[in-house]
Amino acid sequence: MESRDYLEMTFRSINCFADDGKLSAAELGEILAIAERDGVIDPNEIRVLHSIISKVKPHEIDEPMRAMLQRVSERISRK
Q1: Residue 8 and residue 15: Cα distance in Å, rounded?
Q2: What letter would DSSP give residue 38?
Q3: CA atoms of 69 and 32, how far apart (whole Å)
Q4: Is residue 22 within 8 Å of residue 61, measured between CB atoms?
Q5: Is residue 69 within 8 Å of 53, Cβ to Cβ?
Q6: How many CB atoms lie within 10 A of CB 67?
Q7: What does residue 63 show for φ and ψ, rounded to 5 degrees?
Q8: Cβ of 42: how many Cβ atoms within 10 Å?
Q9: Residues in Cβ contact with 30 at an 8 Å cutoff, skipping those fewer than 6 apart
Q10: Domain that includes residue 49, residue range
Q11: At 42, which helix (H) or strand (E)?
Q12: SS3 content of the chain, % helix, strand, coil (to 5)
């Protein structure tokens, strides 16, 4: 059976962006945790993570976000 975690990730990201218009490092970490909870980050989850990250504006990237983006990148690149 195909994982539907990517749908939950999408929904969570919509709520995060709707809250204050931007994504925090903690929120991105929560979304990454959804992708990782079954032990595999599948292609749909990778697609959703790329989409979410593409919405983060350069001026919104502080040190915690930079570290989280690096963590996400490391998890995705292991595919």
Answers
A1: 11
A2: T
A3: 10
A4: no
A5: yes
A6: 12
A7: -60, -45
A8: 15
A9: 12
A10: 5-77
A11: none
A12: 75, 0, 25
Please tell me whether the overall predicted TM-score, pTM, comes out greater than 0.85 for this model.
Answer: yes
Tokens of 22: 């931007």
In order of 8, 17, 57, 78, the CA distances from 41 in angstroms are: 14, 22, 24, 9
Number of Cβ within a 10 Å radius of residue 57: 9
> What is the total count of domains within the chain?
1
CA distance 24 to 40: 23
Express each pLDDT in 5-53 by its tens digit: 999 999 999 999 998 999 999 999 999 999 999 999 999 999 999 999 9
